[in-house]
Amino acid sequence: MKVKRNGHLRGRGVKGCAAATAIALSLTATAETKPPLPAAVVDALNLALADERHALATYQAVLERFGEVRPFVNIAQAEQRHIDALLGIYAHYGVPVPPDEPQADSATRPLDLAGLCQIGVAAEIENVRLYDEQLLPTVEAHPDISSVLRALRDASANNHLPAFERCASRGRGQGHHRN
What is the sign of the dihedral through the CA atoms of 74, 22, 25 and 52? Predict the structure, then answer.
């Protein structure tokens, strides 16, 4: 489920995500044949995709429970763009896309918006760590893939994390329902 309003995707701070999507789309547009990716790179892509899908499922569960509350609505849209950017890499290299079996984080079910924002902070910190310590080093020999993953990492560090930190510092979600 994509988060939409009046049929249009919404969100702020999308430069990094938009850049990653543009890079991934340009990869799919090139006609050159690429050699198969090493298994470690495919594993890194699969891990990145699973992580982004899990985040999206979790944030969508929050939206289903609380409505279109920020920052969850904006970040859910960004997570969908992250997924789309990764899918562009899969298409470009002809790598089979793993099945979409995301599940929302069950630890978030009993939480109020303040607790959910704190979980968001921890999740984005972990996401940046995953990219820095595992994913980016694995794909560094592939500048095109590295560029997309770097943009996704930067979106988490520079957009999502500060949004959740602001939300948590207020002691609750903004509570702005956007209809």
Answer: negative
Q: Tell whether domain 14-27+36-169 is in CATH 3.40.640.10.
A: no
Amino acid type, 99: P
For residue 6, pLDDT over 60 is answered with: no
Query: In this model, does residue 19 exceed pLDDT 50?
Result: no
Long-range contacts of 149-154 (CB under 8 A, 24+ apart): 149/44, 149/48, 151/16, 151/17, 151/19, 151/20, 151/23, 151/85, 152/16, 152/17, 152/20, 152/48, 152/52, 152/82, 152/85, 152/86, 153/127, 153/128, 154/16
User: What's this model's pTM, rounded to 2 decimal places?
Assistant: 0.75
Q: Nearest-CA neighbor of 123 among 172, 170, 156?
A: 156
Annotated domain spans of the chain: 14-27+36-169
Place of tokens 């959910």: 116
